[in-house]
Amino acid sequence: MNINDKLATLKYNKSNESHLSADNDICMRCHDKPCTYICPAQVYSWDEEKCILHIRYENCLECGACKVACPKKNIIWKYPEPEYGVKFKNG
Amino acid sequence: MENNRAEVIIVGAGPAGVSAATVLARAGKKVLLIDRADKAGDKNMFGGCIYAKQTAEIFPQFWQSAPVERSVTEQKIVMLTDYDSTQYSYRYSSKGSYKAFTVIRSKWDNWCVKEAQKAGAYFAPKTLVKELLIENGKVVGVKTQFENYYADIVIIADGVNSLLAKQIGLRKEFNDEDLTINVKEVIKLHPERLQDRFQLDENQGCAVRILGGPLKDIFAMGFLYTNKDTVSIGLGVSLDELKKKKIPIYEMLEELKSHPSIAPYIKDGEVIEYSAHMIPEGSFNNIPKVYDNRVMVIGDAAGFVNNIHLEGTNLAMLSGRLAAETAIFAIEKGDFSASTLSLYYQKLKNSIIIKDLRTHNNTVKFMKKHIKTLTGLLPEIACDFFEVLSSADEIPKRAKYRRLVSKILRSGLILKMIPFAFFAMEKCIKR
User: Fewer CB within 10 A of the end CB, N or C, for chain A?
Assistant: First the structure.
């Protein structure tokens, strides 16, 4: 079962606005980019060509690991607005 | 709520928050419990099980009416090697006194909040506290997406990420090594099939810890809990180790699920939900300042977790009760200063919370240092022992014994166990 299948089991109310953000210029200087493999929902991926950190915030499980693991403390992490984000039926 | 004013505001309706709210409401205090979820529990996730004793202190005889899944009657440790395993099981008869129950948080937390409401607490769901309101350097209330609420005391119960405790400098962000990231899958199985597989009676359940195998050599542990008609399987790994390993945690979970000793437990089950959550490591040194003028911090927000014994919800509920008792004392005295609220810390010190976190202050560090022995060598030697015991073939037994003993000697297992003996001794003697 890959991560997309896992995420497909979840109920989300998707917001049009991201509750997560990062400064791409700072990401560019980050060699390791732990957010890309720490996140349990694979929210973050680095686009090598465009030098952009893609943030699929709509898949976020709201755990907070990315903001702790980010070596540059570059991830602005907030809770989604109420009624938005993930909903666990079996947490 | 009159003029948006309460005597106590509690932010976060998890086990810590509901416990505090219930105790305060029962004492006739005006209490507002706030949560960002549509329905209490919808944003919450754990392994897991709740513990009967500390829960019953707040909700006596709760198992008669609460939505519990199964009473835990078996604790098991599974030690994996790459392909094999040894399993150690402790089964006990409940004799009418329960130890723990597996629960599903969306049902359980919602039930707890309803109990708090019955006691007289106001509950505001779908409400996100953006920040604490500060006047003259003191917390006077909370700012939400709608309006402001005011109270004499704010109890912070907003969980492991606690943005609020950080806002007022009571707590710093935890470091990688202070946190584990945990994922879980809930897998549907017919109750009868589940009971057959785990050799359980109706309403009986088991809690399983899994070491080694795909989780060897890193500070990680798998878990498995049986619910009514689902199995919760997952793993936790410390953030610093995951950073070194660079393997996504969901891939580790797949490896764990497909291990030959684990796969049969969940075979033909349908994965109905995946989830993730962080857990604070819970050592005494990481406990933040948990009170100040007009404010207290409880539960995961304060780092009250005993990772060795898998205790968290019980400590959350206990800390909630102690903070509530302190708040009642402060309200009656009419004094909400830090010096009055320091009673909360005194109560924590006299409880198992601080005592146990002190006992285990260096345990995670110790485990990390000896993780290869614990999750690699020990499971392997245990399997080798059973292999020698059970394999009937043409090799003479003496040759097998020699091979096993020589492997144990060469591996240095005996020497490597000495620190464990000293460590255990230290835990008994140290004050």
Answer: N
Picking from B43, B243, B248, the nearest residue to A69 by CB comes out as B243
Q: Is the dihedral of CA B331, B334, B337, B340 positive or negative?
A: negative
φ and ψ at A33, to 5 degrees? Answer: 50, 60
From chain B, the residues in CB contact with A86 under 8 A are 43
CATH architecture for the domain at A19-78 = 2-Layer Sandwich (3.30)
Which residues on A lie below 8 Å from B163 (Cβ)? Answer: 78-79
Looking at the predicted structure, is the pLDDT value of residue B357 above 80?
yes
Flag if B239 and A65 touch (Cβ within 8 Å).
Answer: yes
Question: Which residues of chain A make contact with B104, given a CB cutoff of 8 A?
Answer: 89-91
Which pLDDT score is estimated for B94? Answer: 67
> Which amino acid, one-letter code, is at B293?
N
The string of pLDDT tens digits covering residues B368-400 is 999 999 999 999 999 999 999 999 999 999 999
Neighboring chain B residues of A88 at a CB cutoff of 8 Å: 41-45, 105-106, 273, 275
Q: Is the Cβ pair A68, B239 closer than 8 Å?
A: yes
- Sign of the CA dihedral B22, B24, B28, B33? negative
Residue B431 confidence (pLDDT) above 70:
no
**CA atoms in the 13 A half-sphere facing the CB of B308:** 16
Q: B276 and A61: CB-CB below 8 Å?
A: yes
- The secondary element (H helix, E strand) that includes residue A28 is helix A24-28
Q: Is B45 on the interface with A (CB under 8 A)?
A: yes
Q: Do A63 and B106 touch (CB under 8 A)?
A: no
Strand residue runs (E) in B298-399: none
Q: In this structure, what token pair is assigned to residue A37?
A: 């493999």
Q: At what angle do helices B352-359 and B338-349 cross, to 10 degrees?
A: 60
Q: Which residues lie closer than 8 Å to B33 by C-beta, 6 or more apart? A: B10, B13, B17, B18, B21, B113, B116, B121, B122, B123, B124
Are B44 and A85 an interchain contact pair (Cβ–Cβ within 8 Å)? no
Model confidence over B121-165: pLDDT tens digits? Answer: 999 999 999 999 999 999 999 999 989 999 999 999 999 999 999
DSSP state at residue A79: P
Check if B249 contacts A (Cβ < 8 Å): yes
ipTM over the 0.90 cut-off:
yes
> Tokens 């945690």 belong to which residue?
B249
Q: Between chains, do A69 and B249 touch, taking CB under 8 Å as contact?
A: no
- Res B97: pLDDT: 82
Residue A47 pLDDT exceeds 80: yes
Task: Calculate the CA A87 to chain-centre distance.
Answer: 16
- Decide if A89 and B273 are in contact by the 8 Å CB cutoff: yes
